[in-house]
Write a structure and sequence with these properties.
Blueprint lengths: L1 E5 L4 H14 L3 E5 L4 H9 L7 H14 L4 E3 L2 E4 L8 H4 L1 H9 L4 E2 L3 E3 L3 H14 L4 H16 L12 E7 L1 H4 L8 H7 L2 E4 L6 H8 L9 H15 L5 E7 L3 H14 L4 E6 L5 H15 L1
Parallel strand pairs: 1-2, 1-3, 3-5, 4-6, 7-8, 7-9, 9-10
Helix pairs in contact: 1-7, 2-3, 6-7, 10-11, 11-12
The structure holds iron/sulfur cluster.
Length: 293
């Protein structure tokens, strides 16, 4: 049996866990990690038109793997590490993908609560049993995967450039160089370094949220709004670039909330979808560098 693992959406964030878990269970696994024009075209053909670019890319990775694999792993993430909520599309991902691709040969679709290790283990055990992995082997793989995930550090904090900005957005837009049209390289060429939300501690994020009437419950809100406020307060950045997916519901609120607090502090919002042209994108980055100067 061959199992396909699509590399889109939160794969990057949980990659150490995923790779260790499947390796240790000694399964025959194929990954599709690097996005490309071919993946995007497949995604457009196999996904509803209204979906955001990251969803289309995820569908593209899955459709590619469906050609060679017996099953694809389509996680249903309900909550993230600290119990925060995530975009509802993640919770309905197995149904979205089977509706889009017309195939439902999926595994590991049990609801996943990253904030509850007991529940997480139970869900993964249930799915592992379905493909004939013993509980003993699964438990050993789970422990190693958790350890590897805990010991891996994420995020960017670049200080060797003339300017420094907070690069906000979802991890699948920040770390997928195809989706963001090589944004990091383009910024470096303009002498702009970046810091990402992973480099801001949980404590600093919570402190930055303390002035709000109500504590937000969206993970993406906390990971974008709070670091922006914390980094401005620490005078660590000269500007903010928010890379956002066209038609993303959560972004539409987060960006307004950030704008509302910024006054004249430089902010550039880059909306991306499958139609985004590179020439206009480059011009906006160059113009923003002038603003930073
Ligand atoms: S949070 Fe936004 S970009 Fe991410 S999957 Fe949901 S709609 Fe798409």
């Amino acid at each position: 049996m061959k199992i396909g693992i699509p590399g889109g959406l939160l794969f990057h964030k949980y990659e150490p866990f995923i790779r260790t878990f499947f390796n240790e269970m000694e399964l025959d696994v194929e990954y599709s990690v690097k996005s490309s024009k071919e993946i995007l075209d497949l995604g457009i053909r196999n996904c509803v038109d209204e979906a955001c670019l990251p969803m289309k890319l995820f569908h593209g990775h899955t459709a590619k793997l469906q050609k060679t694999c017996d099953y694809t792993v389509i996680p249903r993430i309900m909550k993230c590490e600290f119990g925060e909520s995530i975009c509802p599309k993640f919770q309905g991902l197995p149904e979205l993908v089977s509706g889009g691709t017309g195939r439902s040969n999926q595994i590991f679709t049990e609801p996943i609560y990253m904030n509850d290790q007991r529940k997480l283990k139970k869900a993964l055990k249930k799915s592992s049993r379905l493909i004939g992995v013993s509980d003993k082997k699964m438990e050993k793989a789970f422990s190693s995967a958790m350890e590897n995930q805990r010991n891996t550090s994420f995020g960017l904090n670049e200080n060797n450039y003339r300017h420094k900005i907070f690069l906000a957005g979802h991890p699948y837009n920040i770390y997928d160089s195809f989706a963001n049209m090589n944004l990091l390289q383009k910024l470096h060429n303009l002498d702009v370094g970046v810091i990402t939300e992973e480099s801001v501690s949980r404590y600093e994020k919570m402190e930055a949220l303390s002035g709000l009437i109500k504590r937000p419950y969206w993970l993406f809100f906390i990971n974008n709004f709070a670091p922006a406020m914390a980094l401005i307060k620490k005078k660590e950045i000269n500007g903010i670039i928010y890379i956002s997916s066209f038609c993303c519901g959560t972004d539409s609120i987060i960006i307004e909330m950030i704008k509302n607090r910024l006054g004249s502090f430089p902010l550039l919002v880059l909306k991306i979808d499958e139609q985004t042209g590179e020439a206009g994108y480059n011009t906006r980055l160059e113009a923003f560098r002038e603003v930073l100067k």
